[in-house]
């Protein structure tokens, strides 16, 4: 009996690769876990929290750069065993969609919210000058609705972006509610700016509706419900910079959805933004893709170094997991 129909389903066919990112606990270096046994039915359009859908990506390329060498012995130095050298792996691709997290991952360092300026501000700065004062967020607020009190919600008109987080209070270490947005080594580093955490926080949302006492967001805040004592400020734009000492680090899942055949998933427990392998080791930050003269789409080039994770099943140091979910009735090999 011919096995051709069964073997045909063994060829993964996909249109594009879709990217999902989730936070790493920077203090413990604990990643977000993707368990293929539990998450094999990963819903691409509604990923389970804390995974964040960053859209389809293009020019997806992975490199495994761990060298191998041989143990040699005898008069003729014959190979008797192999061993692996320093672990190394990288992944590169283009984000076709622009957003706060896409920009942060592509730039690799601190990513900042440009806060709406104070009236008559005379202290301009490339990453935003003195902002208008924050408005206190009241108890009862959630990741999707921010309560301000009677009349105060009018400070945040429908359609505006809003950053929600605590005042900076001279603390050191990682800052940002829910997601580590920057690392502060000393208060002097950020000039004890009370707005600094809101300048860098990932707790940003778009106002969809304004009520008498609150605003409703189009999407839940990435960092979750505002902590007690948080304030909100209007965000005018996003800005990132070439340079800085902070490194973005995230868990990542790349899914080649099946058009005909099985699904393939590439799970990186820990990815840290780095430079690419382009000309002379340089990274093209943006790419132009012409689709109808004279119009071109501007995409964000992103490059990452894989950091090690210890597999709890056998204690091995691992950089990436590749999972294959065969199509129904496909041959096993």
Description:
The protein is mostly beta strands and 333 residues long. The protein folds into 2 domains: 163 residues, no CATH class; 129 residues, no CATH class. Helix content is 7%, strand content 39%. It has 4 helices and 21 strands. Strands 6, 7, 8, 9, 12, 13 and 14 form a 7-stranded antiparallel sheet that branches. A 6-stranded antiparallel beta barrel has the order 1-2-5-18-16-15. A hairpin with a 4-residue loop joins strand 3 and strand 4. The model has no long low-confidence stretch (mean pLDDT 88).
Secondary-structure element series: HEHEEEEHEEEEEEHEEEEEEEEEE
Termini gap: 17 Å
Question: What number is the mean pLDDT?
Answer: 88
Radius of gyration: 23 Å
The poorly predicted ranges are none
Domains (count) = 2
Summarize the amount of helix as a percent range. Answer: under 10%
Q: Decide which structural class fits the backbone.
A: mainly beta
Q: Number of helical runs?
A: 4
Main sheet overview: 7 strands, antiparallel
Shape: globular
How big a fraction of the residues is strand? 35-45%
Total DSSP E strands: 21
What keywords describe this structure?
single chain, mainly beta, 4 helices
In short:
This protein has 333 residues and is mainly β. It has helices at 4-8, 36-39, 100-107, 196-200; strands spanning 17-23, 52-64, 68-73, 78-84, 89-95, 111-115, 135-136, 145-147, 161-165, 173-175, 182-184, 204-210, 214-217, 231-240, 249-256, 263-273, 286-292, 295-306, 309-310, 317-318, 321-325.
